[in-house]
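Researcher: Re-running this chain for the archive, since the previous output was lost when a drive failed. Same request as before.
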Amino acid sequence: MPDHPHVRICEVGPRDGLQNEAQFVSTKDKVQLINLLSATGLSYIEAASFVSPKWVPQMADGIDVFARITRERGVVYAALTPNLMGYQDALKAGADEVAIFASASETFSRKNINRSIAESLTLYEQVCKRAHVSGIPVRGYVSCAIACPYEGPVAPDAVRLVAVSLLRLGCREISLGDTIGAATPGDVTALLDVILAEIPAARVAGHFHDTSGRALECIEAGLDRGLRIFDASVGGAGGCPFAPGTKGNVATHEVAQMLEAKGFATGIDRRALQDATNFMAQILGRQT
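Model: Regenerated structure tokens:
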């Protein structure tokens, strides 16, 4: 193993970090935030979500955001797409990759996208087929991978079924989301015992919310099981608008600091990341 094995941090702040802010963040500020993040050495930035403005008004300017950002070589600019219409908008905007999201909880799936898990997978099959024809990579998210705000704890096998289904549809990578931040390191280990029996660790990412202050510990549990991809949000901003009472994602600077202290390489310029973190605090009008 190399002296400094690499861990990839996927930055979701411009999308997941902003999507449930009540006050609209200007397109100009979103563009500047993404440009600042592009200068940090991050290789993956989820820049927007092409969902109905009726449900997530904060993301209504996705096409304008993509048109105005300064793209850095080597950075993937991705977009969340819930359906074929969203996929077409992402394609029009020039997204390098699209992401689809299914839930391991039946109730959450219906609350979030008004579809059963089976119906959502049928819909995403169409998106994946279109993306394959266009040569656009697809990333898959599994929400409620640990617990659901409506149903409570979610069985690892339920998560496995959805994750494997997304992989079979053509997703290149599966991100397991602790949507309400309920996970303990033990929960993560138990989940990965089931998931990694069928999916290689190189194709699995961890997405942790810091609601209970255990996100970094959960990332360490993932590292111990061989995961080398983790989602994070600049300043720890954001969370799911359909998961009541949850707070932000794990902060990118905290993840980078922890990884580097443990001897992993991230490729991130911490000074540049601090600039992006400060700007996120400025546009939100609060400390992040």
